[in-house]
Structures are given as C-alpha cells and as structure tokens.
Amino acid sequence: MTAKEVINAILMQENITGSQLAKDMGLSRPQAVYDILNGKVLKVSARMANLIHTSKPMYNIDWLLTGEGNMLNDDIPATSIRAEKPNEQIDSLSVINRLIEINAQKNVEIRELRQAYEHLARCFEKLANGETITPADKKAISI
C-alpha cells in the first residue's frame, strides 16, 4: 500500500476526515495528513506513524510505515479497540432519537397548518360565493 492508501484506510476504518485524524494525532493543522492524501508526500514518516500509533494504538506501526502486513495489532484485545465505539454509538443513538422526536413534532405542526390552510381555503370559497363566515369559522381561523 502507498502512504495515501494507508491514510485512506485509517480514515475509512475510523469513519473520520483527514482533519479529524490530524486533531486526534495532536496536530494543530491537518496539512501533514493532506500532503499524504494529495500525493505531495509519498511515505508515512516515523514521526507521523508514531503520532498515529500513539493516538490510535490499534494500528500496527510496521503497517503504518510500510503499508505491508496486518493493519491492526494482533496483541491488542478487540475490547480495547472498540472501547470508544459504544459511547459514540450511544451518543449517535440519542441524537437519532432526538431527531425522530423533532421530526414527529414537525409532522404534527405540518398537519395542523395543513388543516388551518384547508379551513381558510373553505372560508375564502364561501366569501367568493357570497356566503357569510360563521362565528365558528372565525374561531377556527384564529388557531
């Protein structure tokens, strides 16, 4: 694998951007990551590999440097690799649940607005036909 493929594999595995990887590595700017992704830098330096490995120890340092061998370390238990994921999934689930609640509220509001619109359309039709609007119609309009 090329350095670009190594970094892309990490980004896909982690489901993050180059900027987020740089931030996780403690870099103040993502330029070093994007230089690899854009082909300006052809190899992952020892410093870059160490920064990645320090922030994400599940990645095999030899793989980071050469692109050969196993991507993930065999000696790190799977539970420690996934330690952060359950919290992230819980956070994602709470966000999804909140969005579902908001969507349901908006659907209720849309339904109420649609009913008010239909009522107004009926009132305008009555007025256009020379009919009078009843007190009940007026009350419904003020909704």
Tell me the count of domains.
2
List SSEs in N-to-C order.
HHHHHHHH
Low-pLDDT stretches are 78-83
Give the count of helical stretches.
8
Structural class: mainly alpha
The chain-level mean pLDDT equals 85
Distance from N terminus to C terminus (CA atoms, Å) equals 65 Å
The first-level CATH class of the largest domain is given as Mainly Alpha
For the secondary structure, the number of strands is 0
Characterize the biggest β-sheet.
none
What integer value in Å does the Rg equal?
29 Å
Helix content: 55-70%
Task: State which percent range the strand residues make up.
Answer: under 5%
CATH architecture of the largest domain: Orthogonal Bundle
The backbone outline, from C-alpha atoms, is rod-shaped
Task: State the CATH topology of the largest domain.
Answer: 434 Repressor (Amino-terminal Domain)
Write out the CATH superfamily name of the largest domain.
lambda repressor-like DNA-binding domains
InterPro entries: Lambda_DNA-bd_dom_sf
Protein name: XRE family transcriptional regulator
Organism: Segatella copri
GO molecular function, one term: DNA binding
Q: What this model shows, in words?
A:
This protein is mainly alpha-helical and 143 residues long. The chain folds into 2 domains: 3-81, lambda repressor-like DNA-binding domains (434 Repressor (Amino-terminal Domain), Orthogonal Bundle), CATH 1.10.260; 86-141. 69% of the residues lie in helices and 0% in strands. Helix 2 (18-25) packs across helix 3. The longest helix has 44 residues, at 85-128. The radius of gyration is 29 Å and the shape is rod-shaped. It starts with a helix and ends with a helix. One of its GO terms (molecular function) is DNA binding.
